[in-house]
Amino acid sequence: MSDHYCVLGNPVEHSKSPLIHQRFGEQTGQEIVYTAELAPLDGFVATWRAFCEGGGRGANVTVPFKEQAFALCDTLSERARRAGAVNTLINGQNGRVYGDNTDGVGLLRDLDAHHIPLKGVRILVLGAGGAVRGVLAPLLERGPREVVIINRTGAKAAALARDFADLGAVVGGGYDALEGPFDLVINGTSASLAGELPPLPEALFTPGGFAYDMMYAAEPTVFLRWAQDHGATPVDGLGMLVEQAAEAFFLWRRVRPDTGPVRALLRRALT
Ligand code: ATR
């Protein structure tokens, strides 16, 4: 019988994870079944436990349950502990639950795939929610000159910067403290979802700078359009989605899928 995995979320019906993992399974000859499971907003843990009782082996976790997934784990990876959030669950021996977070490595693999340098550069991260918390440690480990976190609620960015200060040069504040230029600007806010643009200064990018939006959509986000108009090379978060999935697949199956064809497939499916 095929091993069963799923993505747990709310909403979850538009998730691309089933398509991605089914392709990974076919490509690597792994017999898996991967489904999207809608968990009620007040029933995440019950949905996970029912999935495990039915023989489920592991799950990806998406909005808004990553912190609840973190709380239910018996064992956490170091990167999940730092992130304070879990996006990959493994139903282990004797009902023990292992949690990991592959979002950060997913972002880094995608930045590498686009040949975006990180060592010695100045990086701006917009937002201070769960998405940003998950990627700060891996970014800082690459040795940038400085990471500046800017958030609408400036105190949240300052607190986040304090939490990660042991890993490198990181400062945080509100948009009034924002002073460019930056070699790379990463949008980790949910503003793109609402079609909104955070208040950004004209001179945001260094010449040859990059703009990365952790969101993706059929059309470039308002942030990426603005960035391109201001001289940056725009990159959306589709590659990050595929790369974080590949890392989760590796944790479950110990086989690394080839992400290139799956990125191309998703890009075609979007247009
Ligand atoms: P996620 O888990 O996806 O990070 P979140 O925790 O709700 O979601 O965080 C959303 C982030 O987007 C926050 O940093 C939020 O800023 P606040 O902390 O001030 O709420 C930011 N955000 C949402 N809409 C925004 C907008 N229109 N302009 C700027 N920042 C916005």
TrEMBL record:
GO molecular function terms attached to this record = shikimate 3-dehydrogenase (NADP+) activity
| Parts of the chain that traverse the membrane | none
List the Gene3D superfamilies hit by this protein, alphabetically: Leucine Dehydrogenase, chain A, domain 1, NAD(P)-binding Rossmann-like Domain
Catalysed conversion reaction: shikimate + NADP(+) = 3-dehydroshikimate + NADPH + H(+)
Q: Where does shikimate bind?
A: 15-17, 62, 87, 103, 216, 244
Residue ranges of domain SDH C-terminal in the record: 237-267
Q: Does the keyword Aminoacyl-tRNA synthetase apply?
A: no
Per UniProt, residues of the Shikimate dehydrogenase substrate binding N-terminal domain are 7-89
**Pathway field:** Metabolic intermediate biosynthesis; chorismate biosynthesis; chorismate from D-erythrose 4-phosphate and phosphoenolpyruvate: step 4/7
Residues that bind NADP(+): 78, 127-131, 151-156, 214, 237
Q: In the UniProt entry, which residues are flagged as the active site?
A: 66
Keywords in alphabetical order, please.
Amino-acid biosynthesis, Aromatic amino acid biosynthesis, NADP, Oxidoreductase
- Record-annotated Quinate/shikimate 5-dehydrogenase/glutamyl-tRNA reductase domain positions: 118-166
Its Enzyme Commission number(s) read 1.1.1.25
Q: Supply the HAMAP family for this chain.
A: Shikimate_DH_AroE
* Family per similarity comment: Belongs to the shikimate dehydrogenase family.
Record text on subunit structure and interactions: Homodimer.
Function of the molecule: Involved in the biosynthesis of the chorismate, which leads to the biosynthesis of aromatic amino acids. Catalyzes the reversible NADPH linked reduction of 3-dehydroshikimate (DHSA) to yield shikimate (SA).
What name has this protein been given in UniProt? Shikimate dehydrogenase (NADP(+))
- Tell me which species this is from: Vreelandella malpeensis
The record lists the lineage as: Bacteria, Pseudomonadati, Pseudomonadota, Gammaproteobacteria, Oceanospirillales
